[in-house]
## 1
Amino acid sequence: MTYELMPVGKNYDMVIFDGDIVQGTWALVINTAQLLNCYYANSTNADDDEFIVPLVLGKGTYDVHLVYVESSNRAKMDVSVDGNVIINQLDMYAAATAYNIIHEESNVAIGGGVHMLSFKANGKNAASSGYTCALSHISFRKVA
């Protein structure tokens, strides 16, 4: 699977290439209610499902924006760069499905070069019926 997200403005610095599934089965889901009309989700619905993609960034401090889907069967998700968690156990659970939920993580320091960006199911809300992660977009906006 190939992803190429190009910088979207002078303060954005991101290019994502081919990704690899570490655990589980991940697939693109077409849904016109979602940003970009789709999202990427783990259909195996298991804790520890994970996929990784190489990421090229310039050295700096970034605000990270993640767009995802909340629902009653969602996991908590970790997002890591080179094994360092930048978003810890983001709870994607909600009683009713909601699209285009935005999470922002501010002032994330990242060295320049090629990095491994990881998305991993890591536990779940007590009310959740599963471990599904559903995300549609991540961006890195350079702030310093």
## 2
Amino acid sequence: MTSKLPVRSAEDVDETALSYSEIKALATGNPLIIEKCQLEMDVNKLKILHASHLNQKYSLEDRILKGYPKEIKRLTETLDGYRRDSQTIKQNTPTNKETFPPMMISGILFAEKAEAGKAIIEQCRAMRSPEPVLFGEYRGLTMELSFDTFGKEYRLTFRGVMTYEVKLGSDIHGNITRIDNRLERIEADIVAEEKALVDVHTQLEAAKSEVNRPFPQEQEYNDKTARLKELNILLNMDEKDNTILDAEPDEGDIALSASRSALSLGR
């Protein structure tokens, strides 16, 4: 019903309506009728499997032409954005990890972590609207401050080629740690996107090889369909012959008709 795999089918025992001649042939054990009934069930099942195979083929063709190329393009652009942002962050980060990278907040440069943390808290308290506002710059990326009215929390959004979001708390040093942790995770994002891109290319190649796979029961389907057509032709011929024979009067009917004619003449 949904055209999805795996195929699930149900059979109605009253689906096939037999003609009088077929019922008569079954009663007399006509092997052609018995074979026809079995073939009809087999062909119906094969039709379902064949339709499922075609649906899967069309789905793969659509993915090959549209889905996979679109996903490859998206992942490639995302990966490029992460790499460029990562390079920007590295260029604006001191080689000594103990040294705090200066943070620009509302036009003021803060060289100390504690002072920068306090400035973040003060800017949050001074906000009068939940709409994003330009906040400053840190490690080569611009910052926007906003308030999430649903979650009741302040957020910093870092913008480079890509965007990165950080939820702020009330701790001075904790906010700086959250910011640094999120920017450092860009390297993990790059690894994840690289793996996803390889996976999509693998899926694309698998789809290309699978889309040309023939229906595994194609020969059986064709043979049984052809045989069913032959049986229908044979049984229709038998039915016509039986109809003609049934229409012919027997000898008793002819004699009775002749007697009636003689009596009519005698009168």
